[in-house]
Automatic annotation (TrEMBL):
The keyword Ribosomal protein does not apply. PANTHER family: FERMITIN 2-RELATED (PTHR16160), FERMITIN FAMILY HOMOLOG 1 (PTHR16160:SF12). The keyword Cytoplasm does not apply. This is FERM1 protein. Its main location: other. Residues 378-474 form the PH domain. It is found in: Cell junction; Cell projection. SMART domains: B41 (SM00295), PH (SM00233). It holds the Pfam family FERM_M. GO terms for molecular function: integrin binding. GO terms for cellular component: cell projection; focal adhesion. It comes from the Eukaryota.
Amino acid sequence: MISSNEYGSHSWELLVTVDHQHEEVQKEFLLRVTGDLHIGGVMLKLVEQIKIPQDWSDYALWWEQKKCWLLKTHWTLDKCGVQADAKLFFTTQHKMLRLRLPNMKTVRLKVSFSSMVFRAVSDICKILNIRRSEELSLLKQSEDTLKKKKKKDKNSKEPVTEDILNLCNSPVSSGLSGSPGLYSKTMTPVYDPISGTPASSTITWFSDSPLTEQNCSVLTFSQPSCSPETLAEMYQPRSLADKAKLNAGWLDSSRSLMEQGILEDDQLLLRFKYYTFFDLNPKYDAVRINQIYEQARWAILLEEIDCTEEEMLIFAALQAYHVSKLSLSSEAQDFTCESEVDEVEAALSNLEVTLEGGNTNNILEDITDIPKLADNLRLVRPRKLSLKTIKPYWFVFKDTSVSYFKNKESAQGEPIEKLNLKGCEVVPDVNVAAKKFGIKLLIPVADGMNEVYLRCENENQYARWMAACVLASKGKTMADSSYHPEVHKILSFLKMKNWTMSPQAVSDPESIDMKPECFVSPRYTKKYKSKQLAARILEAHQNVSQMTLVEAKLRFIQAWQSLPEFGLSYYIVRFKGSKKDDVLGVSYNRLIRIDMATGDPITTWRFSNMKQWNVNWEIRQVAIEFDQNVFIAFTCLSADCKIIHEYIGGYIFLSTRSKDQNETLDEDLFHKLTGGQE
């Protein structure tokens, strides 16, 4: 018999299901509670009733109907809103998750299902030894990708067994602070900057890290290329609408995995979401560099980003021999061999190709003297109803504007036209073999984009003017310290493209162990025979054959960054007042409205001109205000509007990073900029 006191007017029964592995013990428990009992008290009562001696410290209460964790243990049931009809689960916060890395390898590790995804990704990156975790996030595979995969598995006679790298013994993934593996915040080199192998001084760290020597090589070295048949069966976007589907599955960084319907042992993709690779350094970032390289490689092979035939052959040459062959030879090296490289030499060979520019050499000169360019170029203006008009003019580039005159003598007077390049789109229009060095400028005007082409005479002239245009589009002048490194980067990319056939190198492509179809997208395997492809890749390889492994990967990443579509994530949207759907491209510094049918840019808006942005969560509409009273509003049709909102806030957050800071992030600022007020 239960006394009437226990049946007090405020007490009620709460059903809690316990997630444990003991089959002989019941899983459902009825607790008599009151509304003023705190969550910690509920868990204490529950553990006392279960009577299983084990460590319950990783367990927490999950509220199934509301899809939320009850983690604030000092809150009462009344404050949480928990009543008698609530279904609570007492389950572990850290669970197994399968992650597909950019290099297509799958790792299995324990991840916090109760932390916000931003924090969970940070913990994952510590296990994998990837610095700058804020650049990555978790992505659900799109339905189309999964459908194609299921169809492939159905057609294959043998069951597909995936090679999974198990990292579940990691101290970080067990929910403990533990050893951070090879994740280093000190200035002690962690990797050899030439080969990417772990430096000898860090080998002793492997003993208490899930990254054993073998596991580390899986993450730091490029894997052998897949067969052409496998490549052909993988999902390839055919249109801008298809590309938009690839970006629909990003998880919300401000919510936990459980809150977003992710279950234990599900598979997600770990990808670089934000294309601003900050402070890349071969001494510390062998895993990060390799994973960025792999993401770039697969984006090119699967045509997620467009490139010309000439560029495709450069990418093929860099990965075909250089990265693949050197990776295999580096894996065969003994990890424990002592490095005799002097610190200064190591720093020099460190390629301080920090992919975003060099050091400021002469600050005073930069402040007082803004350089200008003046030269003869040809202007090309496309006409809608007639042929292009190509005329030579005298061009002067100063600050962020280009002016052109009839000839050099008239340059003292008024120009024929002055083009302000701030906020414009700059697209290379180059064919090195045909000696074509063009710059396509899409300049924002009131009713869309004004299209202008500049034609240069040679590589050097093109590099100088192209670098100036790129900087001007970002609102920077040639006085900026990144101008000369930008010129150098453009020239080095042109040099890679400018190959000449070496008879002894390509006399017999068949004698070389190579499947050229593995290194180019399926479109080119249909266009050329295997022998032709091999010969052309070998021609292109002449210019990259002297590079070290890490340099080849960094060059590949640089070449990828120089593609016009680099860093654009696409979404299908409907702009307010419009009757048709458009594509919105989100980049690290701008938004681009693109015509869905033609793929042509309509308007560009720079983040630097943005005053404020917000979301109307009721109608799921993103509204943005720019300088000069420009307002835009749109609803997202291919994904949740929260994803675009997070992209914009995320890029603004990343722009606040500086090398002077330590590597701790202002997580609160990230959530303020990206979280929204739902």
